[in-house]
Amino acid sequence: MNILVVLEDKSGSIHRMSQEAIAGAQQIGGECNLSIGILALGNNAPALAEQAAKYEATEVLSMENEHLNQYTADGYAAAVAQVIANENPQYVFFGHTYQIRDYVPRISVKLQRPFLNDVVSCSTNEGKPVFSKQAFNAKLLAGLHPQGSGPVLVSFQSATFSSDNIQNGTANVRSVTVEMDTGTIKTVPEEPFQEAAGGVDLSSADLIVAIGRGIGKEENIPMAQELAKVMGAEIASSRPVVDSDWLAPHHQIGSSGQTVAPKLYLALGISGAIQHVVGMKGSKNIVVVNKDPDAPIFELADYGVVGDMLEIVPKLTAALQE
Amino acid sequence: MSEREVLELDVLFVGAGPASLAGAIHLKQLLRESGQDASVAILEKASEVGAHSLSGAIVDPRALNELFPDKSVTDFPFEAEVAEEHLYYLTAAKKIPFPFVPPAMNHHNCFVTSLGKLTRWLGGICENEEVDIFCGFAGTELLYEGDRVIGVRTGDRGIDKNGQKKPQFEPGADIHAKVIILGEGTRGSLTKKLINRHDLMQGRNPQVWAVGVKELWRMSPGSVPQGYVAHTMGFPLGHNIFGGAFLYGMQNDIWDLGMVVGLDYKNPAVDAHHELQRLKNHPWLHSLLEGGEMIAYGAKSLPEGGWFSIPKLAVDGAMLIGDSAGFMNGQRLKGIHLSMKSGMLAAETIAEALSTDNFSAAQLADFELRVEKSWVKDELWKVRNFHQGFDNGLLAGLFNSGIGLLTGGRGWGFKNRISSESGHLKMEKKAERDRYNDLHFDGTYILDKVTDVYYSATAHEEDQVPHLHVRDQDVCTTTCAEEYGNPCTNFCPAGVYEMVPDGESQKLQINFSNCVHCKTCDIMDPYQIIDWVPPEGGDGPVWVNL
């Protein structure tokens, strides 16, 4: 195979950003005539492999090992590095998740191969992929042309590709094994934090309700949380809300917070300072509610309402509940 | 529990700006010539050399020529030789050329320069000279033995916003050296402590500062003449605020557009950032910048006081150089060559002190004698009353500096020294609030502060104690709100200070992660209760070509 996509497990199914990486592999593979393999690993590997086998790919690799039943950075790095060394793909694709940020740099060092992380778009030039990364605080895009035969490790930012574009097909599943012993794993994992398990990984959320200074006071926060709950959305915010300690820092979107690109971003009482906008401008649909018709956020809006979020949110919640 | 590391050195410079870099290079040259050796290091709070360097700048190559006798000006990392120069008086709609460019503002044989490029280049030479540059480490305390400075403590890392240690806590290191040279730049935090503790401003005029704000504009290819220089007076500041604007043509079709505003204005509503935005509304600049894109922003205060505001330069174990000491020629709008020369003169004193192993104040005072005998004194003496002349407005200032040309710098034609007072004392308790009513922030041409700040690429670890210490925040909501209308929200060019609703009242919010390390707040606060201290090392702006 030429491209190996490494999956991340999300409670027994394929992580949305891994699906996006598959869609990316299919697109680039099509344009550059490269074959695709998909690697599932961990205790849910059979389930993930079964799901992946329904996608258009050359083959699916499934890897189980007692040392991989629980995620550890050293264990995953050792195992995936061995698969890469054995299969020798030109490119290895990942979604740019927290887990990938944790263990893939180790593979890069182990194999002495480059890791192009947080890639935001991909094009082709003379039959070869060109990966674009943000540089200088997202002011510039740097096009990276990998030289030589590879493998080159690449992780994609959320929504670089759309999982809607994934092509279905059938792929054979092949079991692969790795040599691992207890000495490889030097870390002892604990249970995932409740918040991580509870799903505040905003970068993989489909729907986000984001609140800004327009929320006014802490007592109004539940109003937004209620709306998010009804929508099945994650709650996020711009900086002032976090500065006031009304939400925890990991809810912050923007240059000093997270970068997200959900299908729907509902911006409530957010003015749209550039520091916030760089964290959400890739959202597919942006709906804005703001009192100030001159607020810069309206320039990004697909739909905008000039009005007080404190009046509109309860009505919206009530309407959705019906 | 981690132990505090102690490092023993011979010579430690604080701040990798032009003064320290030139000083360290010159010291290594002198030691090599005399067959001595010494360990020399520079502490730098930025993540890399140059990331906190900002200036106009037009550089007089005099100090560089002396430092590198084997090199020529074509070897230096300048943008371009000054090719044409203009001096304009602006009204809101017109620009009126001065009939001639006065000799003091003649930039013949000078070079348009990015200070960040110059310091990065000097930093490379330092490394070849085996000077250790510790980037990402800020000096936060001076270490004393009695009244003798024996070292610098660097800042702790990993303290959360409540002052508690985080898991990655790392205590700062103690760097001991035989002599500490403070080249921290303008209003250095250690410099401030040193000056206060040893009363180094005694008998001097108080330092007066200005703040410079600048934007870099990228234009279409071929549209920016390299080496073009224009300075302006008049609009938008008017006659009662010291300062003016500059426009320099850089390489790669970039305009350097900046505004200098004296930090001795009366109206508390004055906002240097907003003045720069107003300037762009002038039809002349509008036509020059049309179609361009703003790509970088920064701000820095600068010492304008001149010769009479330079403090005593040496104490036991420590010296002051560069902007920390106030080596700036306000009339020529230049200080980089003076800063570098001050560092080089300090190096000569240090080389002697090393050979006699004597670092007492008396021995280090040799530095002051060297300054007295050098062209630094010649140059600054002639303009010693320049800034003070502007206390009575633009026309009086121009008259005074004109007369000064004929009398060798005497104030009003006869006074050897015009005294002055600190700029913040001049602020009046009534704001003219409507000064910026005509500004409409459009997000692409007329930019609000937070947008500009974004282009300074400044970043700070969020979970730390804010590095702007406001000693009594009750003053903000009571006295200051009434008397001055919270001028910090105006004079900070990075939107660090904000008054936000707090129930029925208001409270001060310090957006310290916006800070671009210009020190204006420390200087201009009318109550002098703001203390700028370094944040965690490596934090702050990431300037490339400012």
Note the topology.
The complex is a heterodimer of chains A (322) and B (546).
Chain A: E1 3-6, E2 9-10, E3 13-14, H1 16-32, E4 36-41, H2 45-52, E5 59-63, H3 73-87, E6 91-95, H4 98-111, E7 115-125, E8 128-135, E9 140-144, E10 152-156, E11 172-176, H5 194-197, E12 207-211, H6 221-231, E13 234-237, H7 239-243, E14 264-268, H8 274-277, E15 285-290, E16 303-306, H9 309-321
Parallel strand pairs in A: 1-4, 1-6, 4-5, 5-11, 6-10, 7-10, 12-13, 12-14, 14-15, 15-16
Antiparallel strand pairs in A: 2-3, 7-8, 8-9
Helix pairs in contact in A: 3-4, 6-9
Chain B: E1 6-14, H1 18-33, E2 40-44, E3 58-59, H2 62-67, E4 80-81, E5 84-90, E6 95-97, E7 111-112, H3 115-128, E8 132-135, E9 139-145, E10 148-154, E11 157-159, E12 165-170, E13 174-182, H4 189-198, E14 209-218, E15 228-234, E16 243-249, E17 254-262, H5 272-280, H6 283-289, E18 293-303, E19 314-315, E20 318-320, H7 322-325, H8 336-356, H9 361-364, H10 366-373, H11 375-382, H12 386-389, H13 394-407, H14 449-454, E21 468-470, H15 473-483, H16 488-491, E22 497-502, E23 505-510, H17 520-524, E24 530-532
Helix pairs in contact in B: 1-3, 1-8, 8-10
Tell me about this structure:
The complex is a heterodimer of chains A (322) and B (546). By secondary structure, chain A is an alpha/beta fold. Chain A folds into 2 domains: 3-190, Rossmann fold, CATH 3.40.50; 196-321, Rossmann fold. Helix content of chain A is 28%, strand content 25%. Chain A is built from 9 helices and 16 strands. Chain A has helices at residues 16-32, 45-52, 73-87, 98-111, 194-197, 221-231, 239-243, 274-277, 309-321, and strands at 3-6, 9-10, 13-14, 36-41, 59-63, 91-95, 115-125, 128-135, 140-144, 152-156, 172-176, 207-211, 234-237, 264-268, 285-290, 303-306. In chain A, the strands form 3 sheets. Chain A has a 9-stranded mixed β-sheet, sandwiched between helices. A 5-stranded parallel β-sheet of chain A has the order 13-12-14-15-16. The model of chain A has no long low-confidence stretch (mean pLDDT 91). By secondary structure, chain B is α+β, with helices and mostly antiparallel strands. Chain B folds into 4 domains: 6-68 and 117-206 and 308-382, FAD/NAD(P)-binding domain; 77-113 and 207-303, D-Amino Acid Oxidase, Chain A, domain 2, CATH 3.30.9.90; 386-421; 426-532, Alpha-Beta Plaits (2-Layer Sandwich), CATH 3.30.70. Chain B is built from 17 helices and 24 strands. In chain B, strands 1, 2, 8, 9, 10, 13, 19 and 20 form an 8-stranded mixed β-sheet that branches. Chain B has a 7-stranded mixed β-sheet with strand order 6-5-15-16-17-14-18. In chain B, strand 19 (314-315) and strand 20 form a beta hairpin. Chain B is globular and about 65 Å long. In chain B, 53% of the residues are buried. Chain A binds chain B through residues 136-137, 139, 240, 243, 249, 255-256, 273-275, 278, 296, 299, and chain B through 295, 443, 450-451, 453-455, 457, 459, 462-463, 500, 509, 511, 513, 544.
